[in-house]
Amino acid sequence: MMSRTVNVLASGLRFPEGPIAWADGSVTVVELASATIARVEPNGRWEAIAETGGSPNGSARGPDGAIYICNNGGLTWKERNGVLVTDDRLPDDYAGGYIQRLDMKSGRVETIYDNFEGRRLAGPNDIVFDQHGGFYFTDYGKVIGDSILMGGLYYGSVDGGPLKQVKYPLQVPNGIGLSPDGRTLYVAHTHSGWLVRWTIEKPGELVAYQPKEGEMSQRGDRSLGIWWANRRGAHSSTHSPSRPMGASASGP
């Protein structure tokens, strides 16, 4: 296993996720604990550029240049040994999660989805756009007292057209990504530690994974490396179908 060192670009952010790299060298992130979108400059300086309410959990740049945000609807926070963590309680004003759009020119934030056929989204988590301009997003779900709101996988459009439920129910689906050719969708499941995949038959419709010609059914694309963050340690790992585990990156 090869080790790579990562450098700290900025500090003081309150639980950042969903990084987007921009042409000017800056990076935008969502801040779950402060309900803001922050822009980090190449020199490490950063500022909040929008307020979202709730708790923004993931983001992606849309084909129109706007930022599309998965907002889980809110979390409560505490410090443990100097580290900011959630305490598994919901804020009093929690009413469900939603998908938002941030116009980068005006700074306006609007909600484009908050329910599927009348059932509120529980906790949208991560989002990825496909080559058709639509987007898949995971809904992580929520734990409310002794009850569990199940999560799922959905497909939406930038114009707020009818939301498509792709997979439901799912238990705590988290990160999401597409293969370079756009044919395979990957979803990471937090509690099980599984990375699962489906073949995309057409936008918003998945079938059981179908290997490409010349590809071993259980090994995937030999040239593909998939990076993911593992909260059990300060590192990321890459899985290449030609080897079970590749490089890891560690940092402070």
Could you characterize what this model shows?
With about 250 residues, the protein is mainly β. It is about 0% helix and about 50% strand.
Strand order, biggest sheet? Answer: 1-26-25-24
CATH class: Mainly Beta
Under the CATH scheme, which architecture would be assigned? Answer: 6 Propeller
Poorly predicted regions are 214-223, 233-237, 240-252
Sheet having the most strands: 4 strands, mixed
| Full CATH superfamily name | TolB, C-terminal domain
How many individual domains?
1
Can you tell me the CATH topology? Neuraminidase
Based on Cα principal axes, name the global outline. Answer: globular
Q: How many extended strands? A: 26
- pLDDT average, as an integer? 86
Q: Give the radius of gyration.
A: 18 Å
β content, as a range?
Answer: over 45%
Distance between the termini: 19 Å
Order of helices and strands: EEEEEEEEEEEEEEEEEEEEEEEEEE
Per-chain topology:
Layout: E1 3-5, E2 16-21, E3 27-31, E4 36-40, E5 46-51, E6 56-61, E7 67-71, E8 77-80, E9 83-86, E10 98-102, E11 109-113, E12 115-116, E13 119-120, E14 124-129, E15 135-139, E16 142-144, E17 147-149, E18 151-156, E19 164-170, E20 173-178, E21 184-189, E22 195-202, E23 205-208, E24 226-230, E25 235-239, E26 248-250
Parallel strand pairs: 1-26
Antiparallel strand pairs: 2-3, 3-4, 4-5, 6-7, 7-10, 8-9, 10-11, 12-13, 14-15, 15-18, 16-17, 18-19, 20-21, 21-22, 22-23, 24-25, 25-26
